[in-house]
Amino acid sequence: MSDIAIKVENLSKLYRLGEVGTGTMSQDLNRWWASVRGKEDPFATIGETNDRTKKGSSNYVWSLKDVNFEVKQGEVLGIIGRNGAGKSTLLKILSKITAPTTGSIKVNGRIASLLEVGTGFHPELTGRENIFLNGAILGMSKTEIRSKFDEIVDFSGVERYIDTPVKRYSSGMYVRLAFAVSAFLEPEILIVDEVLAVGDAEFQKKCLGRMKDVSRNDGRTILFVSHSMAAVKNICTTGLLMQNGQVSFGGTSDEVVDYYIANFLNFNSDTKIQITDAHRTNRNLSRFIEYKSIEFVNPVDNNLYSIDDDIVIAVRFTSKVDKESFRLAFSICKMDESAVGTFFSEEALSIKKGQEKEFSITIKNHQLAKGQYYFDLSVGIGNELTGTTDYDVISKTLFFEIAYKDRLKTQMMTLWHSEWGSMNFQEVELKAV
Question: Is there a single domain that holds both residue 257 and residue 186?
Fold first, then answer.
């Protein structure tokens, strides 16, 4: 175990839907008596696989089932999979927030976890006080915390508000400070969930760079859950693919991402998508402004466009409140979930409560390389499009493909994109319909 940071053996977690405990005191006593005698939980012998796409017949669900893996010291493990695959449950068990139903975990070193905005922070305390509180929880002395304090504050970018209670922070400020504390107080193991998506693009890049540095230079172990395949490939050395509470595939980060793309990101040729919660990354938030649909205005057969074709889409959204200032944004992403370009509406938009608005977006001279793509959508204020509960964030809508009609052009453009490939958003028109 000397070079093993985390060892997980036969880990399972059973949940009962809709109730706390087993439902009756006698059943709770039977469960307790079985555990005292070292026997199997009599109410954990039934249960269904955690497949959120199907209606179940049992009140028991295995959020995790017989999970086994090892993480070596200094390794960066990327954990990927669809929503509901068991990724966050696994991290909560590793962080000792909840206990496993069966199985064992052996950990060599201190763990710092960043699982959701505000985890480990006391809202009534200031940013300064929460830094010392988190350091104490990690077992660090005041002297150690003071030696890192200036670096933490500088990295977080919230120096002006460091003596303000964190309950007054925006979610973006919250996660900035929380990540800085976790990254600079030097735990042996750092666990990071998708919470970094709350920050803006500049801060996400900064965080990914920091995680890469502490792994390579300081030899610390990192477990990183993300829906960004590009980020997983960039910073992770190994990967796990979770499916329905089980480990579906393991290997290097490149192998796992490629397997996921080939087997789970299915290309479809729909020309119009009615937005549902299945498309949303912030499905539990208030979303005062919501997308309703997205469609191609100039659809082609099987959504197969050439380099010379303009791409025109129409987006429709509505609002639950009067809003005088907000912006639309969209990204075009490759199938590995990396964005090749992002567009923000230049002028602030307005909408009345209950009103439905539609805009067409025309993309000219896009210069996309041959391959398959899809759209991500956001609506918010400025560049902090995911930093508030008020707005909508949509992922993986309207798949399309770029193909070249001329063989010589295909060869030339493929070569150009292999060396310089980028998205040209100089000619994007946003127009009210």
Answer: yes
